[in-house]
Amino acid sequence: MSTLAVHDHGVVHHEEGHEHHHKQTFLNTYVFSQDHKYIAKQFLITGIIMAFIAMTLSILFRIQLAYPDKSFPLLETLLGRFAPGGRLSPSFYMSLVTIHGTIMVFFVLTAGLSGTFANLLIPLQIGARDMASPFVNMLSYWFFLIASIIMLSSFFVQKGPASGGWTVYPPLSALPKSMPGSAEGMTLWLISMVFFIASQLMGGINYISTVLNMRTKGMDLWKMPLTVWALFLTAVLGVLAFPVLVAGVVLLVFDRSFGTSFYLSDIVLNGKIQPYEGGSPILFQHLFWFLGHPEVYIVIMPAMGISSEVLSVNSRKPIFGYHAMVYSLIGITVLSFIVCLHHMFVTGINPFLCVVFMITTLIIAVPSAVKTFNWLATLWRGNIRFTPAMLFAIGMVSFFISGGLTGIFLGNAALDINLHDTYFVVAHFHLVMGSAAIFGMLAGVYHWFPKMFRRMMDERLGYLHFWITFIGAYLVFFPMHFMGLDGVPRRYYAFTEFESMKRWLTVNTFITWAAIMAGVAQVAFIVNFVYSIFWGKKTVQNPWNANTLEWTAPIEHIHGNWAGEIPTVYRWPYDYSKPGHDEDFIPQNVPFSQTMNSNLPHDFEDNPVGLEQHNQWTNTKKANEEVK
Amino acid sequence: MMVQIQQEDRLNLGAKKFNMWIFIFTSFMFFAALSSGFIVYSGGKGHGLDVILPRAFMYSTAVLIISSITLFIASRAAKQLQFDKQRLFLWLTFFLGIAFFIIQIYAWYVLTYKMGVYFTNPNASRTFIYVFSGMHLLHVIAGLILLLNTINSAYKNIPQVRKMYKMEMTSIFWHFLDIIWIYLYVFLLLNQY
Fold this sequence. Notes:
Low-confidence stretches of chain B: 1-9
Shape of chain A: globular
Largest sheet of chain A: 2 strands, antiparallel
Number of domains of chain A: 2
Largest interface: A-B, 52 and 38 residues
Strand content of chain A: under 5%
CATH architecture of the largest domain in chain A: Up-down Bundle
Number of helices of chain A: 17
CATH topology of the largest domain in chain A: Cytochrome C Oxidase, Chain A
Mean pLDDT of chain B: 89
CATH superfamily of chain B: Cytochrome c oxidase, subunit III, four-helix bundle
Number of strands of chain A: 2
Order of helices and strands of chain B: HHHHHH
CATH topology of chain B: Four Helix Bundle (Hemerythrin (Met), subunit A)
Helix content of chain A: 55-70%
Shape of chain B: elongated
Oligomer: heterodimer
Number of strands of chain B: 0
Number of domains of chain B: 1
Distance between the termini of chain A: 41 Å
Structural class of chain A: mainly alpha
Helix content of chain B: over 70%
Number of helices of chain B: 6
CATH architecture of chain B: Up-down Bundle
Largest sheet of chain B: none
CATH class of the largest domain in chain A: Mainly Alpha
């Protein structure tokens, strides 16, 4: 049998050689690779680099917030004209905030997170040789890299990067002369985003098509791991939402560069009346938030999927409420398109509309809560193994709860009038989608590192990384709630100018030091990551005793994932600690005929022949026991 | 047998065709966003279009519909292995596409120079005419490139499966271009007053 398979594989290569003139060269193996596993690594490493850059930016502006009047000569040495006299200039402060947000939301938590794990896990977990179109998949990465480079290059233009906030609201962003950041920096931002969206669409289209068309034999939708479900629905969200942002951006480009007035009206700039008439800046907000809200679910859903998988594997228990988990993911996907106006409660939209969107916003808390309870129920009385991945997954649940609760406050239109654009909002989304999604991503990195790099990460450094980051994140974001309740607005350069906000300076100093501590902890991660790639302990075939298909693929990466035939799937991915089985896990590719002792009538719901055989087997067994 | 299964596995043309369908969906979302932008804009500001659209748009629509029909004939010819007929109708489709392009540009000329409906307009609903047709023309360029690619493959000696695959990919996209233009045109017509 095995010789047959090997022989066939050779034939396939032969055929392929004819078709693409395929030859393994350095360029197409290590640079322009079309192998999904390699593209996943490219996404991950680019994502990590972008994350470190964005984190550094945040620490820079945290220093400004903690010591608004102090001068740090080192800053001038490092940043030159952006920090005259050792103090960040106000416009550069705005740029830092903007680029930090943009990079974190789009480049790290969208591309870095779903780019990495959709590429790695979708083909491996559904049993496919590669993506539907490997070439488009490769393009997706290279467009992402180009977008990243363009975004970072805006630090090198004379007036600095975009500085209108990551939401780039017009009219500020539409008038190049309105502030330094709206000049070339904004143009580069827009170009970068166009490349980025192209990259996301190419990726997303591939992920959807692969999941729907290329599952292995036996892998019906209800046997897919929750990671695949989450990544699939994330891709659906992206494909539906990103084109809308393109439309908004296209109109913004026309306003900026061609003198149209979609978003502009009645504007006086530097004492001169501008010719724009009749535009509406709210129109941009409508288009932006139609993407923007699904975008936050694009960020969190892969983290949810990864956490579900990691929690189940390391609790040695089936995930609690698999169907409920899937239906709540679907619910979130659908609802995320009809909550977008809750970002616009204070723009003067019709109060009746506010009520409608308030209700949908509160309804979306239901599937989110269902997921949270299911995670907790999965942990309940499990045989928990505290691997670093598990700790990060638990951390993700923790952040999702504490950040999610404040979402209920913000979703109320009446309360939002008070809390809008304050640090309360900053605290809310940094916990619920920033920290939670990053923790989900880190859980995934620790968990699938052996699959990606064939070596294990160091556990002790992992624990160190987890605890300092976890405590650090809470110390940073928890005090911000109180600042927000007191009315401290976000994006301000210095609070010393305002009598009522002066007293928050000590808290700001505290937050900054907590942020620096959490930032330093990331060194533990990067050392661990780089060291383990080259010198880590070699992994075994299935290091976590997990059920999903990726652990049946050979450790050595081969093009096409499995050497012979792709394994057939017989059962769902969460058969952990099944009573009657001698091990506490049963991989998906083990047929029921090999696990007669542990089979339950429930396993044969849509398989009457199997149920018949199962009943026969149990009856015989009973009869035998009676004879004894 | 296994070789065959694995080969299909590698080519997976079905999955690639599905990619095209999803891409069409993304494009559709893009135009849906533009047209809902129009609704929000004109509804909120009380700025209607208030322009009689140039007749050229009607001619271009007719040309585009005819091009869809010729492409359909080409597709059927390819299925019946009548390759000469396929090539002829592919070329016809291509030139009709070019004609559509030219007529659209002519319509812009009429709008700007004859009617004084400028691109930079204080009433942005009028700018939307240019944005709709311009963004659609960008898609038409992509469609024309796809058509050229298919015409090229029609002259080459490659397996029929691949030929049909290219033919189908192009057809899906071109018919979509047709439908989305009709949608945009009807949308503009309904909002004319």
